[in-house]
Design a protein that fits this description.
It contains five helices and four strands. With about 160 residues, it is α/β, with parallel strands linked by helices. It has one domain. Strands 1-2-3-4 form a four-stranded parallel sheet, sandwiched between helices. Helix 4 links the parallel strand 2 and strand 3. Helix 3 runs parallel beside helix 4 and helix 4 runs parallel beside helix 5. The chain is globular, with a radius of gyration of 24 Å.
Length: about 160
Amino acid sequence: MKILSRLLLIACLVLPFAACKKQEAPKAEKAPVAMPTNDDAAAWRNYVQDVVGRNIGDISNPPYVYLLPGESTPDFQGSYDRLLDKAKTDVARGITSGNMLAYASPASAKIGDIVVESFKDVAPGSMKGVKLLFIGKAEDNERVKAAVTPSGVTYSFVEAK
């Protein structure tokens, strides 16, 4: 009987501590990074990083981010050509399910051209489970969406404003 009484006493003393859980403070969500109003590359990197982070969802792999500098930057055409080549090569090689592609630029029409050109020869339905995020102007949204939809990607658009 003494053992049972002692066990009950210990249980009564330990139970309140076991039941007490430290309540976690609610996490304060960071304010979104404002879209840069100029062609500053560092500001655009921060902006795109923030937008991609807010839209990545359940993707666990690092995203493929294609950031084209603004048209006023030196050697814009060279940057455009190199990014187009990289994007076409990556997409042609195949992106597996569970990955994300993100395209952004202060030159929305030009990054839209890169997306359209990259997906020109992609087999229909070959990219199911891949998420594609286009950060650009609303007037470029529909043509980009029309170019990538046959591939089977999950398309998302964020208006850069």
